[in-house]
Amino acid sequence: MIIVLFIGAGFVTSISGRHVQEDLNISKEDIAEIANAVRSRSFVYDSLIHPSSVTMPFKLMGDTSNVDECTAYNKFVPCSKYNFLPTIRDVMDNLRFRWKTIKIGDCVDVHYIGRYASNNSVFDSSYEDVNNKTGGYPLNVFVSLNSSEKSPKVGYKTVIEGLAEGLIGLKDGDEATIGPIPPEKAYGAKKLGIGDTFSTTNLALEMNQTVQVIDLTSNFISLKWINVETLGKFTMPKMILKNLSSMDQNEMIIFPPPYYIWENSTEIINITDETVTVKTTPTKSENLSETIEPIQYSIADIMFIFPDATTATWDETTITFTHSPDVGAIYQYSQDTGYSHVMNMTFTIESIVNDTINISVMYEGSDEKLYQEVNSTIEFNRTFVMPRLYNNIPLMYQEYLFAEDLQREGYSLHELAGETLIFEVEIVRIYKTSQKYNSLFHNFFERTSGYFPLLRQLLRM
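Now predict its structure.
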């Protein structure tokens, strides 16, 4: 089958806009060349069959005085008197390689050899045979300077900043040496060790603590909360990590009473080597929350604060919550579960019997009711003992708990921390997943949808 394609102003408009020049780094000369070629000529493409020759009527958009037909042989072939098609294809191929340049947001298959800059010895490689650069499997890289950014392609992950920066601008088939990459853009300038300190908000949730490394092995790290003497009034955390090595959930996590509803109302009253005792002084007794507030105070137990029906009283040692919602009262609650997803729930007061409140909950999109019973009166101490020691935290958790904290303060737990590195890379394949590229070509093919099969082949996408 021979496809004769007449491409006019729509195609020219698509490739000649200023945004194309900026996004794809196409020069004005390139745009002028391909625009002039497309305005004046047409394409012939032998797409599906392989005859020895095919003859068909052919018409040029320009002067057709001496051309009646064109013959195609298994590939693009110029008409005898108008040798235009190789020129167009050459231009398209030239532009294709520029479009296939690695940019931030792309995914790349890349072979690599990692070397120490100090002695050029190899510390890692994707090749099975490093000397001959053969075998093995390329690394699947998502090119981003934000290590926490999610890849648009499954199985592709970010790499160290210096390597990512070095990949930007390379093309399919390129081989390059990236580096020397300084430790600050590799695996960290300083390897974390015993006695080092850093700050984190992930051990006592949302409470900023300065901690010191008191033990570090290949599998575990132990930390101690320090500088507690300088801490003034603060807001209590909702959750505290205790022993992440335990298989017992009650040992892993501590849920303090809801002191946090009174901001900056907790202060330290006693310090030992292993614990800190704090005391909370409530600042208001009513309107404790603007919405219904489910509060977890153990792995299995939940209580509620009702926006219009919970009051707090206290004496020197105890805080008491008293709940008095009306039967039939309805409360809406939304919880951000992460990943841009919000869970909406409807709580209804079904009944109150003696000191027990029966509450139903329905999740948005479900007709099933779940039930929870809570006491109408809850008491808890004004004082609470917080741990200073966080012992034997498995290092497999450090990525989630304080990897960003360590990076911010120049520390790393990686074995290559402090090393200057060099990478020899070979670009195996580029997947143009960068946002600008996808947006541009989506709009381009929308405007030239009738020519999409041919253009896709020409661009080898």
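DSSP finds ten helices and 29 strands in the chain.
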